[in-house]
């Protein structure tokens, strides 16, 4: 007997924050297709906004294929097209400019989920009261940790938050993937780094353990704003 898809509830929000003049974040909330996505643009005043919007627009009409592998391949093809577009935009702008965006997404199909990401936007899994980051930040701090440096050395490096990968940052698209099993009651949190700059993982875990899914979203955003919200903040919550 074939396994049925889980029933999903999802909520999403984006906020410019208290410092930035423009919101370069974008998100996609497609519970009907079991696809959720965060994009955090970079590269000049308007270029970052265009880059994140290009990712969302490319996947706005996404439809799940029968097989998970085919759906992932379709997403990859679409992001390849966005990557080419952004690289061409940067060349046209000249002066060694970069037009790019992070991307972090969850695609769910029956009892399996796939995370796809490039950059430092994150996907977390909250399961049985515990929060775990599924993605690995693509920045120099993360790279230093894998090379054996301490967390103190990595965090104090002046280039710690510089991205090592992003859509549009290089002619060859780098997209990391992870597949895992989905269980009843799982909650996924996707966010731009505007959230984790202000709110610790333990605090996110506490909020998700304390309130219902639809209440967690405004509570997390309010916590971020209360701490100064130095960056654009985008949060997507999806639970089954």
Detailed description of the structure:
This protein is an alpha+beta fold and 240 residues long. The protein has helices at residues 47-59, 68-93, 140-146, 151-156, 193-196, 201-210, 213-226; strands at residues 9-15, 25-30, 35-42, 100-109, 112-118, 122-127, 130-133, 176-181, 187-191, 233-239. The strands form two sheets. The protein has a five-stranded antiparallel β-sheet. Strands 2-3-4-5-8 form a five-stranded antiparallel β-sheet. Helix 1 packs antiparallel against helix 2 (68-93) and helix 6 (201-210) packs antiparallel against helix 7. The chain is globular. The relative contact order is 0.21.
The helix-and-strand class reads alpha+beta
Number of DSSP-assigned strands? 10
Q: Which residues form runs of ≥5 with pLDDT under 50? A: none
Distance between the termini: 21 Å
Instruction: Give the ordered list of helices and strands.
Output: EEEHHEEEEHHEEHHHE
Mean pLDDT: 93
Q: Any idea what the radius of gyration is?
A: 17 Å
Strands of the largest sheet, in order across it?
1-10-9-6-7
Gross morphology is globular
The proportion of residues forming helix, as a percent range, comes to: 25-40%
Seen as an oligomer or otherwise, the chain set is single chain
Q: Tell me about the biggest sheet?
A: 5 strands, antiparallel
Strand content: 25-35%
**Number of DSSP helical runs:** 7
Notable traits:
240 residues; alpha+beta; 7 helices; 33% helix; five-stranded antiparallel beta sheet
